[in-house]
Specification:
It is built from 5 helices and 4 strands; from the N terminus they run H-H-E-E-H-H-H-E-E. It is an alpha+beta fold. Strands 2-1-3-4 form a 4-stranded mixed β-sheet. It starts with a helix and ends with a strand.
Length: about 150
Amino acid sequence: MKRLLLALAATAAFVAPTHAAPPAPNQINLDIGTPPVIVMKHALAQRQSRLARFYETGIMGLDIHGMVRIRDEERLSRQHISVQQAAGKPIDQENPDRMSLIYAIAEAHGGKEAIPVVSEMMAKYWRDQFKSGWWLQDEKGNWQPKP
């Protein structure tokens, strides 16, 4: 069911070409309650605790676009193979779900024209939600712990 909703949301965002201007950030409601948005937010929330342990150790961080990335490959390579596998699986699920959430919110606000605005807003939201000491990537690609 989840994948069907995601496919419908992603497809719907690209069905009807429009030439409307993208909405302004103050016109975007990131908390909109459409079914695809609710499904994606639930999936992301369920995965958060599995990711948090990697954020806390500095193995993972958030890139400039709000996507989860392996930050310290060397530290990860020194971990037991089960930990290495446990790190890869949530990333493989998390980033596509983050993109699906962006598309679902954009669809609720006019379609593909809203994607860049929603993407930027969500990146800021996810970065703002990150805890102090967790690693963020800056505009130059450098990693720094959040103050």
